[in-house]
Fold:
Amino acid sequence: MERNHDSYVSPLSTRYASAEMQHIFSENFKFRTWRRLWIALAKAEKQLGLDVTQEQIDELEAHKDDINYDVAEERERLVRHDVMSHVYAYGQLCPKAAGIIHLGATSCYVGDNTDVVILREASRLILKKAGQVLKNLAAFAEKYKSLPCLGYTHLQPAQLTTVGKRATLWMYELAQDMENMEYQLSRLLLLGSKGTTGTQASFMELFGGDESKILEMERLIADEMGFDGVVPVSGQTYSRKVDGYFLGVLSGFAQSAMKFANDLRILQSFEEMEEPFEKNQIGSSAMPYKRNPMRSERICALARYVIADSVNPGMTAGTQWFERTLDDSANKRIAVAEAFLAVDAILNIYMNVSAGLVVYEKVVNRRVMEKLPFMATENIMMESVKRGGNRQELHEALRVHSHAAAAKVKLEGGQNDLIERIAADPMFPLNRAEIEQMLNPAAFIGRCPSQVDAFLAEVATPLIEKYCGEELTAELKV
Structure:
């Protein structure tokens, strides 16, 4: 189809979100789900004794995917009502069943129940992609679980960690998001068929006041659509807080991905790690040597959008007067869809980056060795005390030597000569060789390797096995 270059097109469609996620929010998915809901309603009503025939149901089944958009759109221009336009269009394809389509239902029967189905399917896709990111990072964490690197607090060098252990921090936040998404899915229920104000008065009329049949009708519809049940009470719509719950989870995914991407941007500046950089990729139009972390930057940009967007449903939920108002619709159809599309895009990039992370081990080690003498001062002091030294005097000497060595590095651009200063100080009963033996980075990483092993076994692997079937790869559009 020829692209219209004279109209706005969402970048989420053209640049970022996957075809799978776009399909879930497409018109075809929406209106085909409407028709499945009408079929589920008709089946339940037939089973419970209303005047609905198998022939009518068979006719509805035969045309459930044949959306006659031209008829629906022409009808909507006339009646200004999307649901009734599609009832009419479906009836044109199913003349025998036309009279029983949407029997007893209100617009939210198809609109809201479809939105719940979309929440479920979009969330499942998010979990699948997040699982692949976990799988990529698990392989990375395992490979580098024993490689010492500088840890940071306040973005200042602190005690050592390992490259692999740091990856588990990224993974654990993502794992929590996945578990949060699982929880929301476990609580997700259909609206059911509640009527115009949630009283089911129309079904009381249809079923002659038999409430048990109404309850059974909803159970049958939920079963047909693959849900455990329907909400116990509602106005005309399902509570808009549900959208808030799911966008809160999506905001969590965005936060976790942004944390990873920001860390990687800083590490790329340190030249310790890089995101994948393609052979013909251009980093800068003016500076040919540059290798910018543009994918990580894109994660951060999209994440900010999702975090801000997650405020929308809360404002919508708080302004739903009594049994419902319609000021939710225009906002909801943008806010919910774009949050899922944006997180899908974030995870596409996250998959791509996590599958191709580059570690420059020599740079990592050089940066460790530049700072390790400072970190080893406590060990040097303790060993000197064991050999008869005075702790307070040794502490003061180490403080003076450390500041002098730091000044040489920062003010003169020289090398860190702290070890030479300590070895030359008679207060310390250690020679240079003994001091250098204390500068083994592996002695400063604590339980990092075993922490990685335990995390992978207990947290990451169960989620990976649950959501990773065939290998997913993300082919970025730009």
In short: Strands lie at 148-153, 156-162, 273-274, 358-359. The chain has a mean pLDDT of 94.
